[in-house]
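Retro notes
What went well: the complex prediction finally ran end to end.
Inputs used:
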Amino acid sequence: MIELTVNGKKSSVDVEPEMPLLWVLRDVLDVKGPKFGCGIAQCGACTVHLNGEPVRSCSVPVSAAAGQKVLTIEGLAQRGQLHPVQKAWIDHEVPQCGYCQSGQIMAAVALLAKNRDPSDKDIDAAMTNICRCGTYARIRTAIHAAAKSTKSAKA
Amino acid sequence: MKKTFARKFEPARRKFLKQSAAIGGGLSVGFAVPGALAQKADGATEINAWVVIRPDDAIIIRYARSEMGQGSMTSAPMLVAEELECDWTRVKIEYASANANVKRKRAWGDMAAVGSRTIRNSQEYLRRAGATAREMLIAAAAQEWKVPASECSASASFITHGRSKRRLSFGKVADAASRLEAPKDVKLKDPKEWKLIGKSVKRIDIPDTVMGKQRFGIDVQLPGMLYAAIAQCPVFGGKVKSYDAAKVEGRRGIVKVLPMESFVAVVADNWWRAKEALRDVHIEWDIGTNGNVSSASLMEFYRGGLDAQDVATSRKDGDFDQAFASAAKKVEAEYYTPYLAHSCLEPMGCTAIVKDGRVDVWTSTQNAEASLAVAAGTAGVPLENVEVHRVQLGGGFGRRGGAQDFVRQGVAIAKAMEGTPVKMLWTREEDTQHDFYRPASLIRMRAALDDSGNPVAWYSRVASTSIFETLARVPLKRPFAPADGVDPQAVASLHDLPHAIPNVRIEYAQRTAHVPVGFWRTVGHSQNPFVRESFMDELASAAGKDPYEYRRALLAKSPKDLGILEATAKAAGWGQPLPAGVFRGIAQTEAYGSYTSAVAELSVNASGEVDIKRLVLGIDPGYAVNPDNIQAQMQGSAVFMLTAMFWGEITIKEGRVEQSNFHDYRMMRLREMPRIEVVLAPSGGFWGGVGEPGQASIAPAVCNAIFAATGKRVRSLPLKNHGLTLA
């Protein structure tokens, strides 16, 4: 049995230790937000946070998450309040098909947690997830907007 | 008076509503098997196939196509709402059922989201449905008040009697309205009266996506469901000869290994176990006769088409040969565009259950009716016994429309596992190597210029595999084809060359390779405008003329082409001085009923890095239904086309695709995104598409700017093969 905490909820799963975290989330724990896109950590559709760090869960064995905290898109809103990044994503109509967006949002949340006011260059470096629909311009705008809203909320 | 329509269809209607509730009212699509959940008695009334009204004034507008990011789940219902005069904030959108479409004689018409045609092909009947429902609601209120309907009007989900100021909400009269005869002839609003069309309306599916609640095909979860991974013969058209599953027998979670005709499936209790086990199943393939095919042999095959005699003539104006022979100046070139994969981020997949002569399918499809027909055919049940449950698509781009291979496979697996729901999912590698690719196309171009440099003769011969014959199995015959033997997509933007050139001949040499081809976003217009508009630049250059002015003169009698060319050039500041080392290129095309133009501003450094400073993209879609969504489509089109033109190339070795995943089939990233400026210039009076046209003018504009910067004419894509990359 491998124990892990997903979105604040403890679970124990009886699976092979090498089973990727993505498939444990999706097929065992029915957490469908993280998506499968490539299986080789190229596209980032499966991005979740492991102890606050963005990881590509398709390439993280579940054993590496044992006893640790996993956060997915489903756990981002707190007490019914959307995360500022989610709000900015809605305000700027970022998604098209939306398939990559839970990964994009998790990557953006991780960036803003470390860097409250990222420059374009910081965004370039951090946001390496693939969006096939091509929402990149809006992702950039929304990250800047989320940074601004967080700053003004704290001011 | 009861109308026969309502009575006649009442049982079906109730059943449909019940079923709709079970698969999810509004947007929260659930995945319960129909019938598993009871419908709440919410008293919703169907006014017509498109409009359902609840007593609490919630307005349900049905949507028949497929949402894959193009935004028509919002913009198509906007057309209904515009005429219905309902409160948009209370609108819920519900997928029309493909099964009900079979039973109700296609009450929702064509369900396919392909060819950028949702708005342009359904705008009239959607607006009419809204107007008809509005008139029925007004008539019902007028009857209740015992006043003439002509004294009443509707606005924001209320009917008002002008003189007495009495008001009734839509929900209050919906039931009475549904019993009235539908008016036969309703007057649609003048565009000047539109309140919703033309406003940037928020896309209705975005909040669910952002909260992680959006349900894609891959997210289907059914009780007792098993999972399947498949391996297909790496050489197209090959078959399973034999297989050995000894290594995976008894392995944890493995339920069954299924040898099908052209693939092997492993069924397990989760997908990862199925996929891992599949690697240990030894499969011998009968690869057929195509094991020696390579990109080089395909190129020779297509080249043969350039000199062949057995070709079809798509268009013939004047006498090209004579004009060319006697011309002052001749320009000749050969252009090539490669095979491309769709690479939807959600790989192909299909969940199905075959049970008691019934099939339920959940799949990301661009054509629910085609999925339904394929499911019925595969399972051997009547169409009426199939439902295709609707989900969001993780990208479509043409992959999930004409070809329903994934449904055939998913249902075949489910049939072999009868009674058990099975979710089949492809790996990225299967998805890259078993696509229906954008056709490779080799094109010979010839033109003749008169003394003043104007083109007097134009010739194009296209050699490629026909999409329509391969995939849609449509014979290339008139009137569907521009001429017998011509695939309309293969000659798109050449056959319809709008420029004032007296002698034109366009030919098509159909060459059917074993590589399956299909509709890839923008289809023929994803490749031929690159050829046409690059060659046009070659002519301008040979004539020593400005490429913008050269086009302007030739388009003097094509006002819409000219209009968007001028609007885009103006926005881009064509002719204005640029910083040292920065150059411009321009192109213009019509695609899917919309007129587009592009201006690229870029520099190229010594190591071949193309730094796109600015891409100005113009579009005239006639009417712009949801302007912000059009902006989004144009931005997305830029990424899609830049990805293709810089890196996109599927190559063949030993009959199989060499690329497998995103490490060797490269996608553009955020850091490479150039500045995009969209010039939305709707001139009104027609309805053009917006999902695809945006791509058409980009590649030639960029390549023409590269020519301006380097003097090097790019005649084949991708640019990586020319030592060029996106900075």
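What we learned: Chain B touches chain A through 59 residues (CB under 8 Å).
What to try next: split runs per interface for comparison.
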